[in-house]
Specification:
The chain has helices at 31-41, 53-65, 81-93, 108-112, 120-141, 167-187, 213-223, 232-242, and strands at 19-22, 45-50, 70-73, 98-101, 149-154, 192-199, 254-257. By secondary structure, it is α/β, with parallel strands linked by helices. Strands 3-2-1-4-5-6-7 form a 7-stranded parallel β-sheet, with helices on both faces. Helix 1 links the parallel strand 1 and strand 2. The longest helix has 22 residues, at 120-141. Bound molecules: nicotinamide-adenine-dinucleotide. Nicotinamide-adenine-dinucleotide (NAD) binds at residues 24-26, 30-32, 51, 55, 74-77, 102-105, 129, 154, 156, 199, 201-202, 204-207. Nicotinamide-adenine-dinucleotide binds at residues 24-26, 30-32, 51, 55, 74-77, 102-105, 129, 154, 156, 199, 201-202, 204-207.
């Protein structure tokens, strides 16, 4: 007798009845888009944000196709924007089980110049959008997570090693990874788990602002044990797993998804 393949009943999917917020979708190349897809495939319900009216054009059809319950404007550099988005999630979802922070910003000259030349305003802007907004997101969401849950941000190897043309962003990703550890410590008693996922280089809109990014992709693929770089779907699958009960014993880590490149000198 042959057995046909059957899809699991929606109620049995690992993220059935779980609700959360996905930030950082700019287009269908965004890491956040792949995370959203993976979470929806596991039964999760999502709210999706877009940064401005320019990106809404690309993001709205994606949000609709994924059946997002909310499609909200979020510019973390605008006072009150993040807190407003979280309040709307509270009104619609009641409680929240997961959130993805997948946003970064840095002036081009601060990526490509010497870090000691970074201006105070450039440093502040990069730190505010790329790191402090994760702390603010957690603070705003905490009351909506009485049953605990997962908060996940995106980091990069430049936090730990000097990567050419990553400049001050490396310093800020290091702060972000440290923030993950302190947040995990503070929020652990509430069952809120906190992670940084560290993907290898992937050509996205943000990455296209980094000089010689194609060379970085090539050299990473050559040194990686798997002999290639990763796809956004591989990052999505790992991130969705971190929202499921399967990862319930983990918190505070930076988890690489880079075909193993970070282990090779
Ligand atoms: P992307 O351009 O698709 O996403 C970046 C997102 O940041 C965009 O959606 C943009 O709207 C958002 N953003 C920037 N400033 C914002 C603000 N003020 N308010 C709200 N949103 C804002 O690029 P991506 O590569 O998917 O980047 C997502 C995350 O992944 C970033 O943190 C990036 O540093 C990280 N990352 C990317 C790579 C890579 O190679 N692409 C590798 C490691 C980590």
């Amino acid at each position: 007798m042959t057995m046909g393949t059957t899809s699991p009943t929606p109620a049995l999917l690992p993220l059935a009845c779980k609700k959360g917020l996905i930030t950082g979708v700019a287009n269908d190349k965004s890491i956040a888009y792949a995370v959203a897809k993976a979470i929806v495939a596991l039964g999760g319900e999502i709210a999706i944000t877009y940064q401005n009216d320019k990106t809404a054009r690309y993001t709205q059809p994606l949000a609709e196709a994924l059946g997002a319950k909310l499609f909200l404007k979020l510019d973390v550099a605008e006072p009150g924007s993040l807190e407003g988005v979280v309040a709307q999630c509270g009104d619609t979802f009641g409680t929240v089980d997961f959130a993805l922070h997948s946003m970064a910003f840095c002036n081009a000259q601060d990526l490509h110049g010497r870090v000691i030349d970074t201006t105070e305003s450039g440093f502040e802007a990069a730190m505010n959008v790329s790191c402090h907004s994760f702390l603010r997101l957690a603070k705003a969401l905490e009351p909506l997570m009485p049953q605990g849950g997962s908060l996940i941000t995106m980091s990069y190897l430049g936090a730990e090693r000097v990567v050419r043309n990553y400049g001050v962003m490396g310093i800020i990703k290091a702060a972000l990874e440290s923030a993950v550890r302190y947040m995990a410590y503070d929020l652990g008693p509430k069952g809120i788990r906190v992670f940084a996922v560290s993907p290898g280089p992937i050509m996205t809109r943000a990455a296209s602002g980094i000089a010689n990014f194609n060379n970085l992709i090539e050299s990473d693929a050559q040194k990686a044990p798997l002999g290639r770089t990763v796809t956004i779907d591989e990052v999505g699958a790992l991130t969705a797993f971190l929202c499921t009960p399967g990862s319930s014993g983990m918190t505070g880590q930076t988890i690489y998804v880079d075909a193993g490149a970070h282990i090779v000198a």
